[in-house]
Amino acid sequence: MSYNYKINKISFRNGSELIPKCLTVIVGPNNSGKSRILKDILELTTKQDPRNIILNNVEFTPPESIDELISSYNIKANIDQAGNYSLRPLSPTLSGSPAMGIYPNWEIAWSGYLRNYTEDIKKMFRTWFGNYFITFLNTEDRLRIFQNSTTSNMETEISICFKHFI
Question: Who's near 35: CB < 8 A, 6+ residues apart?
Fold first, then answer.
């Protein structure tokens, strides 16, 4: 079985809701809150205690099993020289790979968590696995990626970026 992370519904603090389709475009004048919405989505999908301002909730589809999640997204625990376990997803801004300490046999615990999926488990899921699914590149992040690149063909790099992220 294959798991595809999908945002099903975005709820705003004013009571309105957005059901995203294959491609959802947010448009508006300067200072209308477009970036704030994206930052709130990032917070609500990657943090246990998000600091969201405009959004109230982001509903996403959890995996049916931990095996489905691991095989679909190639999630592996890293073990350092001291024997400490961690997950190392890329950060949403592609600026690093934060290590999150985990425990041996974490897969067994998550099998039980996913069978008894509650709001608390959802919060924990966001913290453990949210960074595997969400990428948020603001202007500074995009410039940093291209400025630190070793290739000289900016057009090729932009093309690769669009193919990867869209």
Answer: 138
